[in-house]
Every structure is written in structure tokens, then in C-alpha cells.
Amino acid sequence: MEARAEAPVCEDVCEDWVRAPIAAHDLQARVNALSRRYRMNRLPCLDESGVLHFSSRSVTVSPTQTELLELLVPNFREVVPREALRYRLGQVNGSRTRNALDLHMMRTRERIQPLGLSIRTVWGRGYVLESQADLV
Questions:
Q1: Rounded to 5 degrees, what are φ and ψ at 77?
Q2: Where on the phi/psi map is residue 131: left (φ > 0), alpha (ψ -120 to 50), or beta?
Q3: Would you give the DSSP letter of residue 74?
Q4: How much is the pTM?
Q5: Mean pLDDT over residues 124-136, rounded?
Q6: Percentage with pLDDT > 90 across the chain
Q7: CB 99 within 8 A of CB 89
Q8: Strand ranges, E, within 1-136
Q9: Which of 9, 54, 66, 126 has a Cα-to-Cα distance from 47 of 20 to 30 A?
């Protein structure tokens, strides 16, 4: 009876289904694909009090880091131009130098690392906020 039932519609990227019986290697392939989709569809969230949330973890960030992350978070996995970050940094603490941005990005990287997030430099263009799982 179940074999003739209509297949369910899965609209959630974290949902999947199979018909029994299923070979162990096929089941493992489905589990792996579902796990990849889950990792690829998680998004970080920066709240108004300066707390960055990702997955089930969170960390507080400084006001300057909050300003930089306000540009990086909405552009998750996309390049944010260096000049946009330097401009934002200048609005916050008055310093728009390359060294000031490099220092704040280094500190931000260290702060968000426990969440499984990283900031990658895209030479000549800017920075990308991404999940460390994306790099595997």
C-alpha cells in the first residue's frame, strides 16, 4: 500500500524522504546530501544588542565589530568591498586606514571563530563572511 502512496512534497531544505526498503549506501548518500543542504542554508544573525548568532551558538561583539558585521552578515557568502568596510569603520571610530581595517578584521575573525564562522580575504576586492563548513 505504501509503495503506491503519492510521494510527499518536501519544501524544507532540511527535510527528505525515502521508500523502504532502501540500501544502506543509498541511505547514507541521502543523509550526506541532507547534511550538506542544512549546512549551506544556515544563516548568521546579528541582533540589535550586538550578539552574533549562528547555528545554536552565539557570541557578543564589540560596537566596532557590530558595525563591520552589519555589512558582512546580510551579504553572507558574498564579497563585501574593502572600501565599504573602511567607510563604515571611519564612521564609527574616525579611522579609515588600511591598517585599522586589517586590525579590526583580525579581531573580528578571532571573535567569531568559535561559532564556526570565518572571514576570508578576497585579495584586491574585499572580504567574505562564510561558514567554516563551507570550506570543507
A1: 70, 15
A2: beta
A3: G
A4: 0.72
A5: 87
A6: 57
A7: no
A8: 45-46, 51-54, 57-60, 79-81, 117-122, 126-131
A9: 126
